[in-house]
Design brief:
The structure is a homodimer. Chain A is an alpha/beta fold. Chain A has two domains: about 5-65 and about 230-309, HAD superfamily/HAD-like (Rossmann fold), CATH 3.40.50.1000; about 95-225, HAD superfamily/HAD-like (Rossmann fold, 3-Layer(aba) Sandwich). The first copy, chain A, has helices spanning about 15-20, 45-55, 70-80, 90-105, 120-125, 145-155, 175-185, 210-220, 235-245, 255-265, 280-285, and strands at about 10, 25-30, 35, 40, 60-65, 90, 110-115, 130-135, 160-165, 190-195, 200, 205-210, 225, 250-255, 270-275, 295-300. The first copy, chain A, has a seven-stranded parallel sheet, sandwiched between helices. In chain A, strands 8-7-9-10-13 form a five-stranded parallel sheet, sandwiched between helices. In chain A, strand 3 and strand 4 (about 40) form a beta hairpin. In chain A, helix 4 runs parallel beside helix 5 and helix 7 packs across helix 8. Chain A is elongated, with a radius of gyration of 20 Å. At the A-B interface, helix 6, helix 7, strand 12 and helix 8 of A face helix 6, helix 7, strand 12 and helix 8 of B.
Chain lengths: ~300, ~300
């Protein structure tokens, strides 16, 4: 490795952390794997967020997790002792809803969305006044029947107004939903994804992520979805537009090279900080085929607290 | 297209069909998309099978559909008016069970299989005396809970004797099963698939196939399964061994270029016959990137009956 490519290690070095903090006004912060793993909050996180704010930094939580709306995220933050309002959260569900409503602007009546995902997607679509079906509808949470096969095949069970399939993490994925989404895609619906993370860090382990819930559809139609979460620069443009940030004074903090760090590098932000509490480790960005390399790294985000000791 | 690459069209040409039949002693025949689509039997199929047998041909039904065992397939054939015994059927579930039991020969106690799939796989594993869990177990046909997340993450819900994950078409696929299979794979279980067809033809339409049920696992572990169905030559070797056939006098009949026709071409069979009643059409094998090209084709298998008229 050329030393110019090496990420600077900040843990335990208060002076280096102070220099790092001085370079930025805004921190875009990933949640899963950085603040917590599933329901387990990492030690010192609320104090670290307070530190950043006490130094006058803006903190924006940028998450690919589509299962929660911004309002639900705000509640989770409060429960974990991190003060935060809805405007500080930018999720992939919100990003997708904004894209559908303000960029795609589908003409009625073929402007309905079939959702493969959880309530977070539904809430953000509602907030943007986008009509949808599927999602958490209990009518789809069951085994497929012969009548379903027949009605999906001849189209009689399909809503002719569906023009988009929006897929994300779905804890209730099943054959009926996949078969239904596939029929809409075969009939020309646009294929969008909140994000395509293959795994979801939770309980100090990994579980199927949004990308693994929707890849059966990609496999069947042989076409990738347009992803509206990190590292999509459509999301970066939306974040920049909303928060009016100076990219050169903004740092992306995250645990994944192929989403968080790539998002910051491709967005030409002033810096990127990797944490080792989630998916990727140092060896991953030192590998030749690394999708992106961070400028800085710490063992855990709370290591930034060294400047207060 | 060079004429030497062109598939010979047999429909309506009794003389050409007679010449074709004379070249072969054994016909390996795909089922879905050739004999039927889902529960819809194509016209003239029982008579066509009778024709082949009346000419002294051996007919072997070689199917990637893993949801039925050979015994269940035999019942389906009888219900459709096609006489057939269990020994005439060679399915991907049987192929996988034979591979696990006779080729892998896993040492006990780590010789248990976690099944992602239907009863057809279970029946064939039982027939080969391979221990298994998962599959149609009702305990896994439910939503994932917090206790599941915790127990899968720390391994307490996992069976330490599982050494193989065998995946196929699963009409009851869900998040809990995918998360469980993934944990076994992360702990070093071998990844096998009955087949990797992306779609399943049914009701004159297409539905998610085995390959689309298991691709979330491939996506998470970044490794393809060893597939035991067509076009895997492990299956061809098993078919050849069981039926003692002369490959030069054997013809594969199927609707899919990337499974059936490729299976026959790579197996160096004497011939391949494509039918247009399933997935692929003539334009598919005339395309530059065609995965394989048939030697002969008919609109439907029953067109062979022209020699009797």
């Amino acid at each position: 490795m050329a030393s110019s490519q090496s990420a600077k290690y900040l843990s335990g070095d208060a002076s280096a952390i102070n220099d790092f903090l001085d370079k930025f006004d805004t921190f875009l912060i990933d949640c899963d794997g950085v603040l917590w793993s599933g329901d387990h909050l990492f030690e010192g996180i609320p104090q670290t967020i307070d530190l950043l704010r006490s130094r006058g930094k803006r903190t924006v939580f940028v998450t690919n997790n589509s299962t929660k709306s911004r309002a639900e995220y705000t509640k989770k933050f409060a429960a974990k002792g991190i003060s935060c309002n809805e405007e500080d959260v930018f999720g992939s569900s919100y990003s997708a809803a904004v894209y559908i409503n303000r960029i795609m602007k589908l003409p009625a009546p073929r402007n309905k969305v079939f959702v493969l995902g959880e309530v977070g997607i539904e809430t953000e679509l509602q907030a943007e006044n986008v009509p949808f079906i599927g999602g958490t509808d209990p009518a789809l949470r069951r085994d497929i029947t012969d009548a379903d096969f027949a009605g999906l095949a001849d189209g009689s069970l399909l809503d002719p107004d569906v023009g988009v399939v929006l897929a994300g993490l779905d804890y209730h994925i099943n054959y009926l939903k996949l078969a239904t989404a596939y029929q809409y895609l075969r009939r020309g619906a646009k294929f969008l994804a909140t994000n395509t993370d293959s795994t979801l860090p939770s309980h100090h382990a990994f579980f199927p992520g949004a990308g693994s819930c929707l890849i059966p559809l990609t496999n069947m139609i042989r076409q990738e979805p347009l992803a509206l979460g990190k590292p999509s620069q459509a999301m970066m443009d939306a974040v920049e537009g909303k928060f009016q940030l100076d990219r050169s004074r903004t740092c992306m903090i995250g645990d994944r090279l192929n989403t968080d760090i790539l998002f910051g590098v491709e967005g030409k932000l002033g810096g990127t900080l990797a944490v080792l509490t989630g998916v990727n480790k140092k060896a991953d960005w030192e590998a030749n085929e690394a999708p992106a390399r961070p400028a800085y790294y710490v063992d855990g985000l709370a290591d930034l607290l060294a400047v207060t000791k």
